[in-house]
Design brief:
The structure is a homotetramer.
Chain A: E1 4-9, H1 13-25, E2 29-35, H2 39-49, E3 54-55, H3 58-64, E4 69-72, H4 79-88, E5 92-96, H5 103-115, E6 121-124, H6 131-141, E7 148-158, H7 162-168, H8 175-179, H9 181-191, E8 195-203, H10 209-212, E9 218-225, E10 230-239, E11 244-251, E12 254-258, E13 267-271, E14 274-277, H11 283-286, H12 288-304, H13 312-331, E15 335-336
Parallel strand pairs in A: 1-2, 1-4, 2-3, 4-5, 5-6, 7-10
Antiparallel strand pairs in A: 7-11, 8-9, 8-15, 9-10, 11-12, 13-14
């Protein structure tokens, strides 16, 4: 069986998850190289993931490592040039979302992808590979709910992560660019249409620190789509019960709702609080299988010379919408998109 | 519109619920008389329910009150003679469950009912009139689950009532006679067959007081039915979360489960305990509508000269099964029924 | 016990529900008179509800009937003058929602209420009296979810009622005035603040007939509130599964969600479709108890000389917001409120 | 990182799942050899799992392969001698449940395990490693539900597998030995006590073929435990909705229920059937992660010189209870255990 030799760029929390999947959990991948600016991360990768070919310089890894592909799990602002460099070095590329933090960056990445149709490019919209979301899409494609015309998406981080959110606030581009990209992608994916207008607002009731950086704790946005459909996104950072990602797709013949209760597992406790279900506490717990499934698909695509369902244009479009949402939130006015 | 003039016997907690329904909540009933040994209860009925014709002697009420029917809500050991007296006085009779606490009593009641086919008799198996249970029965009658062959019934009182349960333990006939009669009736009703054998057991882990009276806190019984079907009953007294009545009917083509979560209402709380549903806290809360619906049906039956779905024989049979269950529990051996 | 003598105006579907409650289900009300333009409705009320004093002319009922109060269940456009007439005739008034269909009407009603502080006036926002909604409000008032800052409200009629919705479309004022008044009231009630801006949109994917009258099948609106809180309303007419009223109140310390599954009862069916819960099929089924509870509260208020929690101003405010929502929907622009 | 070199014996449906986990999904295992009587299975393992050292004779694999451990996934009747042979050959052993199909076999396996305390032995009670069951056990150990005193266990296969069940009926030892071993193990595990008596019964309503081999389609058993606790097991083969494994542990301070709805994923469909959740369709789908987790634990135990939580005695005890259950079912009488 042919294996895809992969190099990983970035070994932070999520990078390490991807590296472990590549090294141990996917039949047809090998973790052949790793690059990080943090020496301790490289030591850990050597010790635990068995990778021996390590780099502190990304371009050196591209030039010297015996790899077919790279996985880019770095700060968002670096994604696009790193994508371009890898493609131009002849490597297949998997890149974490978002594609970039500025439209001109995204256009560079688009151009690089277009220059290299022989290479596989995939953006890490892992929710599409979660079994519940994939099931919903299959049902919709099989017309189980008729024509979808409204998506209601919720994404709220657990309150437990709030100090980190406060710390990065200001540099993150604001709540919508920071948190709504997945929800925006899901709306586009489920509705099969492009957003044309957005109206957004925000609120901060618990942690006034967000106001200091002109950010908000919670955001709500309403979207119009080209085909007449509509979307609602609610993102936030202060769920006391855990990590709440919920999506509802309303169609002419039915509705699919995913994860109304963001359950930790299948157990229910009957106690003095009533009947209770504990919740997942973060994206690594909620989407562990999805991170694995997307990388499996990436490897298969690269080995088989295919492109995955998520394209570079999905990255550009979602970023574009994220910017428009941010503009509406800041100005208080509806903003046309595209 | 013709109204049924009713007298109530017994104005305790449940008696007062029935009296209120008769007085105010049912179009075709009038609360025309009331009888209680407790003067304060009669005073309250006068003040709040507007009944003026009150008695401390049951036979005097039967002899003198201008009533068509009586509702008997008294201690179980008195039901049968009170039924007999009312029927022989020409009154329709509604009687709370159980029919009686001894088989010879039940036979007296049966004979009285048979002597008066012109009168309506109804036993208060109110669960049959609960909208969820009635729905389940309709679905089963419509063959939605094929042939039902297993009923799993649960009935657990809230821990909050435990002191009363301890107090009456010893005089109650034990946990199965005290608590399993409704579940036994439901098994017979849903399966459409009679129990032929039972094996029962009990346990006491929290309140050793029950052991002093040879009673138990929790009971489990398994039943065989004449048509080959099976039943399981779990009754208890120590649910920390509330009043848990749950019933599952398993059939060849599907299963119906009623009240897996004994929800207080339709609200869910998402908080640090997870996602929680508060529970109902007792039978008056859980079955308020069923108490009303059964009395409405009784009144209609009496006015229209019909007999309701619950007959005196349902009372005798469930008591018989309750005794057999108790015998198995006490002896540790399976007991044949009937 | 003192009883409130009530006359009912309007005996259509909902009017008859109220009339039955007044006649039979509430201890301290008497249905003393009825008024309708439809002779058959009056005949039915005589036969089934036992009312003998009937009128085809509202002002005659006010002048001649021996009543303390009226319940007005008529087309929305008539509410305000009927309220005024009743109050000026010295009657307590219960009126179905909405208060009116034009702001100047509402102001007339407000003035009449202010002229008669000695009389009880109540608007029929019955959801507030539903046990799940009342429980949510109690929890919120007890600070169970901290400070509420976002309400997400859904109200979708069953597809089965669509022909009627199409028929009245054009005369109804559009989907928001027709369907969102309850959700608007709930937002105000739960957030304890007034809406200051709205942005609304609509879509029609299944029944193009709505487009002919410039109406829509589905509407979505986003609101800003004076205290910084936010609201989202989704109303529609085409739920294939039943009548879907769901409300979520998000607070700094937790969330309460009401009726995520608009269950018909407590039964679940396990069959070849999976595990299924059937849904309620309309407002009479969903809110039967709430219609009763609100009228009980009205009667108590009138007898005790109190005003209920729902005031005439709640009616004015919700209508004002409904108009602003409609304007935003029609113009595609955000609209300031008040 | 040290890796455990494993040989697999048996490459049927479940064997292949284990082989894939060993080969690709666990960091510290290597699939170093495989043995099967079916040449096609070995070819597939070579092609897809990359194993090159294959055998058709188990003893040859033990003698010649460069392996530290074996995983035995063969017909139940062969488990015990295969365990003995592997241990005596100095290999760590993972064996699928049940330990054996006769008590004397089990005793041989016990003796072999006792002869080799230096080797790790693990029985494949994978449910204990499912995240929901492991969570329940942690909660119980943390006294979240006080003292557990009743376990209600359900295990029903999907109707879709019925033809296979009919085919093997007669040779399987009957429904309890075939299907209840996991539930029996769970009762012992959660209650921390041994069963002392069982009363069992069976029923066949849909597929009379089972009666021809003195088997049943559905079985119900009630257990008494040494510490006074109780257990109920319901096993069956005809669930139309999927694979239904549900377990409830009732304690003095609360109850934990696992998988009341055997959901396929987190999606709910709102359609004309109501609100529906599709169900898992078999053990490979339901317990995929548990099969992986148990093998990870086995490898860690072998590498670290530990014994896992599941011992050979758990295998003997559950088989013993399975036999007693079968005897009660066949004789219709309670049977003492041990």
């Amino acid at each position: 069986m042919k294996k895809l030799r992969m190099g990983i760029l970035g070994l932070g929390r999520l990078g390490y998850i991807h590296a472990t999947n590549i090294a141990y959990k996917i039949p047809n991948t090998t973790l052949a190289a790793a690059c990080s600016l943090v020496p301790e991360e490289l030591e850990r990768a050597k010790a635990e993931l068995g990778v021996t070919d390590v780099y502190s310089d990304y371009r050196q890894m591209l030039a010297n490592a015996d790899i077919d592909a790279v996985a880019i799990i770095t700060p968002s602002g670096d994604h696009c040039w790193q994508i371009e460099a890898a493609l131009d070095a002849g490597k297949h590329v998997f890149c974490e979302k978002p594609l970039g933090v500025a439209m001109d960056q995204c256009k560079l990445a688009e151009a690089a992808v277009e220059r290299h149709p022989e290479l596989t490019f995939m953006l890490g919209f892992m929710r599409r590979y979660d079994k519940s979301y994939a099931y919903a899409k299959q049902k919709i494609d099989a017309e189980a709910i008729g024509t979808p015309y409204l998506v209601k998406a919720t994404g709220v981080d657990p309150e437990g992560l709030i100090q980190n959110a406060i710390r990065i606030s200001g540099g993150s581009g604001g709540i919508f660019l920071d948190m709504a990209i997945h929800d925006i992608d899901l709306m586009r994916w489920f509705l099969g249409s492009e957003a044309t207008e957005v109206y957004a607002m925000g609120a901060t009731f618990k942690h006034p620190e967000f106001k200091k950086t002109d950010d908000d704790e919670t955001g709500v946005a309403a979207y119009k789509f080209a085909n007449g459909a509509m979307g609602i996104v609610h993102v936030g950072r202060t769920a006391p019960y855990g990590y709440h990602v919920e999506t509802e797709i309303v169609g002419t013949e039915g509705t699919i709702r995913i994860s109304a209760v963001p359950e930790k597992n299948l157990a229910q406790l009957y106690n003095t609080s009533g009947v209770c279900t504990e919740c997942v506490q973060g994206f690594p717990e909620r989407f562990a299988d999805a991170y694995l499934a997307e990388m499996e698909e990436f490897a298969l695509c690269a080995l088989e010379g295919r492109q995955p369902g998520v394209s570079v244009y999905d990255g550009t479009k979602s970023t574009l919408i994220g910017y428009a949402t941010t503009e509406s939130w800041k100005t208080g006015k509806p903003v046309k998109i595209g």
